[in-house]
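Exercise: predict the structure of this protein bound to adenosine-5'-diphosphate.
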Amino acid sequence: MNQNTFESLGLRRNLCRVLDDMGYLEPTPIQTQAIPALLQAKDLLGVAQTGTGKTAAFALPLLQLLDENNVSPHPRQPRALILAPTRELALQIHGEFSAFGRDLKLRHAVIFGGVGQSPQVRRLLKGVDILVATPGRLLDLAAQEHVDLSLVSALVLDEADRLLDMGFVRDVKRIIAQTPANRQSLLFSATMPKEVADLSRDILKNPVRVDVSPKQVTVQDIEQRVVNVDNSDKQQVLEKLLHDTAVSRAIVFTRTKHGADRVTRKLIKAGIGAEAIHGNKSQNARQRALDNFKTGDAWVLVATDIAARGIDINAVSHVINHELPHEPETYVHRIGRTGRAGSAGVAWSLVDTSEQGRLRAIEKLIKFSPRELEVQLPYREREHHASATRGTRPNDCARNNQASNGSRRPRRRRRRRAA
Ligand code: ADP
Ligand code: MG
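Solution:
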């Protein structure tokens, strides 16, 4: 008999029914721990990686509490506030609130920068129960008195480490200062750097602490390989790897926005359906990229860390690191985007000799050394066979050979500029 049900956590029928319809069979560990405490209006400090089910962990109890205490929201005065670091994450959270709250009469809105404010202002004026926001736009609208936070009974900081990373610390503090002191507060973060710990001490009162960072487990389940390759050959290796028939949907991580654009351009030129997503893109362009990726029109998403963080994309078969990140933890976040929901994923890292130090730091964190994956480069062989260290040995990975013959995707050679 299965005791671990959403109902046993104290959630009412009208929410459980929706979860059933959505295929949520049983709560994840963070949901099991957080939901009962939050239903008792406790504060909460949640340490958890992406993909652990945090959104439902806070959205479900907040919806139930707001619904139980059902007063119509006053114009411009939201009753619950969720702060998220990026527009994509805000939209995603808002979408989940709408889905879970399908059968409730609560009103939701999402606001973020980079788009016109008028529709957001109109929405706030009508009154919303739950407001999901990025900090910049929220402060803007508050300064213009389009939103008043004095009736916020519940405050959630999602991905707090990212919020602070992105320089929102002052904004976040100014926002919190506008909310009532007797609110319920929740803070979620994948990592606990000092700034986040300080902030949580400032804003949480006797919080229940939920820690579900299954770092080792997650990491061990992912098949990780390292491809030793010169920077100048990375694009070619990437294209070859992506033509592997086992790659059904991939996220390619680059360190810079510029790099993401460059890689994407070249992939498209090579006939690979790719989209780039990063902070320099307009809101519409980012959403379009994500939609194309989710529907499968583009099967490769090239992303920077901040843009990709927290975005929920299922069924990513491969994560490819075009460069290794400077922070070893970021590597763990990146590869965590594959192999979600029980399926084992694959992570490949393209590593230039200049990145060996970063690789060592990662190996120290994950406590093992990913095996090497050798990739042959047909075009570069002649030019590079003198660099005996890498790249030109017969590869140990049969799938690469298969991929170049029997690829199900049209394969186009990279065009070479005519002399
Ligand atoms: P996080 O915020 O921790 O990154 P999300 O809340 O975005 O995680 O959840 C990750 C994915 O898992 C989403 O697709 C979500 O719909 C799904 N999910 C969350 N909880 C459950 C559950 N109990 N059963 C099935 N799927 C779930
Ligand atoms: Mg999340």
